[in-house]
Amino acid sequence: MTNVKTTISISDARKRIFEIADEVQSPNKVYTLTADGKPKVVIMSAEEYESWVETLDVLRTFPDLEKEVTETDEAVRSGDYKNWVSLEEMIAKRPRSLAEKPKRKYGIHTKDQTKSRKESR
Predict the structure, then answer these.
(1) Which whole-number Å values give the CA distances from 17 to 13, 14, 48, 99, in the listed order?
(2) Domains in the chain, ordered, with CATH?
(3) What tens digit of pLDDT does each residue of 24-73 get?
(4) 34 vs 12, 14, 17, CA distance in Å?
(5) What is the DSSP letter of 103?
(6) Pick from 27, 31, 28, 26: nearest CA to 12
């Protein structure tokens, strides 16, 4: 998967913005826009951007992902995974979630508040 990166000035990009918007829809096509010869901004498709954001989020959530994948692969090869708790077992053992509990309304009724104010006067 080769990243096709094109570098042009912001002035040139201004003249070609619709063309650039279409071009970056191709997978891995990115434009770097420069000002005074220095990189200033990158243009990529919204889909590509969302993919990068999702990847960064996964890497933040699972900082040792590569190690965990390696360990999981080894467990599958050795058969150790068969000793792991299944999703069904985890669900069966978990306490009922708040969403499953009967819904109750908490708070003070305005009628009671009115009475309290009258009584305290």
Answers:
(1) 5, 5, 18, 49
(2) 4-61 (3.40.1620.10), 63-95 (no CATH)
(3) 999 999 999 999 999 999 999 999 999 999 999 999 999 898 999 999 99
(4) 10, 12, 14
(5) P
(6) 31
